[in-house]
Amino acid sequence: MMMSQLAIFIPLLPLVSFLMIAFLGKKLPKKAISLMASGSIGIAFVLALIILFQQIQHQQSIELFLFSWINIDHFSVPFAFLIDPLSVVFICIITGVGTLIHIYSVGYMHDDKDFARFFSYLNLFVFFMLLLVMGNNLLLTFIGWEGVGLCSYLLIGFWYKNRDYSRAGNKAFIINRIGDLGFLLGTFLIFGVFGSLNYLQIAGNTNAILQNGHLVTAITLLLFVGATGKSAQIPLYTWLPDAMAGPTPVSALIHAATMVTAGIYLIARCNILFSSAQITLNIIAIIGVATSLLAAIIAVFQNDIKKVLAYSTVSQLGLIFLSLGVGAYAAGVFHVLTHAFFKALLFLGAGSVIHGMGGEQDIRKMGGLKSKMPVTHITFLIATIAIAGIPPLAGFFSKDQILASAFETNKFLFGLGLFASLLTSFYMFRLYFLTFHGTFRGTEKQKEHLHESPKLMTLPLLVLAVLSVIAGFIGFPHALGEAIGVHNLFNHFLEHSVAVKHSAITLNTELALMMFTTILILITIYSAKVIFLNKNNVPASDEEPMSLSKEVIYNKFYVDEIYQIFVVKPLYSFSAFLNKIVEQFTLNNIVDGVGKVVVGLGNVLKYTQVGTISLYIVFMVLAIALFLIYKFYFLIFNQF
After folding, report:
1. 503 vs 276, residue with greater confidence
2. Structural domain ending residue among the three candidates 508, 540, 572
3. Are residues 509 and 590 in the same domain?
4. CB 585: neighbour CB atoms within 10 A?
5. Residue 455's CB: how many other CB atoms inside 10 A?
6. Same domain for 573 and 462?
7. Residues 304, 240: Cα–Cα separation, whole Å
8. Which residue would you say has higher pLDDT here, 394 or 571?
9. 302: which of 51, 151, 548, 581 lies 20 to 30 Å off by Cα?
10. How many angstroms separate the CA atoms of 371 and 534, rounded?
């Protein structure tokens, strides 16, 4: 129990580091800032591992009450943390991957003039994300939820002098406000139904859940709206691809370890409510698989290395939501874990490529980098194999669980999820072949600049590569595991916090699905090799004409443009209308009217200020006379 008290220091360390760097950053050398920023997250990770080992032994929910936060009449919300298997998994992901990204950032951002500001934002980001997953109540989670939204705005628009980057930060912030409203309304409804915002009290109040079926459905739908914003699902996914405007380590942190996992965490944390709302689960599964498929199709035709990875994240998140929608919460969280490793590796690898290419991000201008950047090449290949779902790397095990759960629940959803997975293997190996194989297609200046990244950047790549290889074995497939005597350690660990869906698929069916999906993935990879390596089919430049279908997909189905026409412009027009009605016709007339009354009154009173003493004496005498008459009548009136 005493060890669990260490959890208090996990969010406190990055918060203290943020404050010190924010206030003293300009006076501190870069080495001190690097040690402080990375060290605080690293120590937090060590503490998280200690708590993880304790949870493995005991698997219990521990509430740590820090102080009384809000206490108004019957509404009481303490500032308290909930330490259980689910929160510990997310804490380890945030601090573990966050530490590697911080170390990588020291090398990547070394020459940036705003080095201190960057690391202060990064530490603040980690603090709010930890607050989000550690809070024992919805209100504390919401504070962390809003905090990561703020930090995403600050980090995506970090290079704010570039207007496009600044707009990308604004876009992320504004779109997330839509989802946040859903979260907030859902929180109000929860308090109205359960009389509490405490997760354990809500989960334990089964009577209220059973007696308020329609309200529980409304609550879960509203919470899902919040999740679609943070975790970039249809229709609120468009902010995430534009989040590439920030420095590459920021992209890695957002996509792998922090913000986009928030919506998944919320649904997993409230799994008792969602399991009682089948309508909501069906919607989640449909939205998830649709998002996964849409993003995967778009990624096939993207040529910016970070944009490909961005749509890849949206697609993988869609698969996780498919898993949540079919009730396989543990499988979804497991994919969050494995995805954190290989997606962080892909983004940091992309950052290494961009660093070596002198800032170039267009894969059409790369090629043949494997000999110049051997560490980046081999680690990027490992991450690509992992995300494609090839055994025995991590992505295979977690995707297998999701697809198996979908197959068991709905064959059509399984088919769509499998197709999205096949597209993932295609566009990721397209990216890999065009970047690292073939001949170099850049300029001579870029060719001369080519070099492997420094050790501060390659060391995190190696660690993440190892994790991308071995992490899957803690979530061994159910039927196969039973047959050979290997248990699914991850599901067993989460059972205390999350409703674990035990698969009823037979061993033969599970093996057949594994072989079927793996063979299809290998065929897809071979197709990518033939097209982009053997035939050296490099995507055409943007100036060359495209077919209509390709142009539509290349332009992301014009979703942003549709939003601009049907949402943004009408809102601007409505704002202009309100401005004309409220400001010009109402406020302006009121202000002008007051001014005219004052001026008119002044024009009348100015005749009393003529500078003649005799006239002033007359006014004074009249005033005294009026006062005496008033007093005289007042006295007479009182006598009667």
Report:
1. 276
2. 540
3. no
4. 11
5. 12
6. no
7. 14
8. 394
9. 151
10. 18
Of 413, 353, 415, 420, nearest in space to 383 by CA:
353
Q: Which residue has the tokens 């332009």?
A: 555
- Grade residue 373 by pLDDT with cuts at 50, 70 and 90: very high
Instruction: Note the pLDDT tens digit of each residue in 250-300.
Output: 989 998 877 899 999 999 999 999 999 999 999 999 999 999 999 999 999
Q: pLDDT for 534-576, tens place per residue?
A: 998 888 888 888 888 888 988 888 898 998 898 888 988 888 8
Question: What confidence score (pLDDT) does residue 1 get?
Answer: 47
- State residue 162 phi and psi, 5-degree precision: -85, 115
Contact between residue 72 and residue 315 where contact means Cβ atoms under 8 Å apart: no
pLDDT of residue 555: 87
Is residue 73 included in any domain, yes or no? no
Structure-token pair, residue 568: 């943004």
| CB contact set of 490 (below 8 Å; sequence gap of 6+) | 330, 334, 337, 474, 475
Whether residues 431 and 577 fall in one domain: no
Q: DSSP assignment, residue 534?
A: I
Report, as an integer, the average pLDDT of 383-406.
Answer: 94
Residue 61 belongs to a domain = no
Q: How far apart are CA 337 and CA 517, in angstroms?
A: 21
My answer on whether 509 and 628 are in the same domain is no
Structural domain contains residue 204: no
- Residue where the block lists tokens 């008792």: 272
Residue 233 lies in a domain: no
- Give the pTM: 0.89
What single letter denotes the amino acid at residue 38?
S
Average pLDDT value over all residues in the chain: 90
Pairing of strands 62-72, 75-83: antiparallel
Tokens of 394: 């991590």
Cα distances (angstroms) measured from residue 564 to each of 290, 569, 571 = 22, 6, 10
Number of structural domains, the chain? 2
Q: What is the 3-state secondary structure (H, E, C) of 234-257?
A: CCCCCHHHHHHHCCHHHHHHHHHH
Same domain for 463 and 319: yes
Chain Cα centroid distance, residue 373: 30
CB of 85 closer than 8 Å to CB of 60: no
Question: What is the b/e burial string over 245-260, where b = at least 16 CB atoms within 10 angstroms of the residue's CB?
Answer: bbbbbbbbbbbbbbbb
b/e burial code for range 493-526 (CB count within 10 A of at least 16 → b): bbeebbebbebebeeeebeebbeebbebbeebbe
Contacts of 288 (CB under 8 A, 6+ apart): 233, 317, 318, 319, 320, 321, 322, 323, 324, 325
Residues 447 and 366 in one domain: yes
- State yes or no: pLDDT of 430 exceeds 60: yes
CB neighbour class for 117 (10 Å; exposed up to 12, middle 13-18, buried from 19): middle
Q: What is the pLDDT of residue 473?
A: 92
* Closest C-alpha among 170, 111, 127 to residue 20: 127
Q: Are 120 and 28 in contact, with CB atoms under 8 Å apart?
A: no
127 CB burial (10 A radius; 0-12, 13-18, 19+): buried
Are both 477 and 338 inside the same structural domain? yes
**pLDDT mean over 224-245:** 92
If asked whether residues 467 and 530 sit together in one domain, one would say yes
Q: Which domain holds residue 633?
A: 563-639
Q: How confident is the model at residue 485 (pLDDT cuts 50, 70, 90)?
A: low
**Could you write out the three-class secondary structure of 9-39?**
HHHHHHHHHHHHHHHHHHHCCHHHHHHHHHH
Average pLDDT over residues 459-473: 95
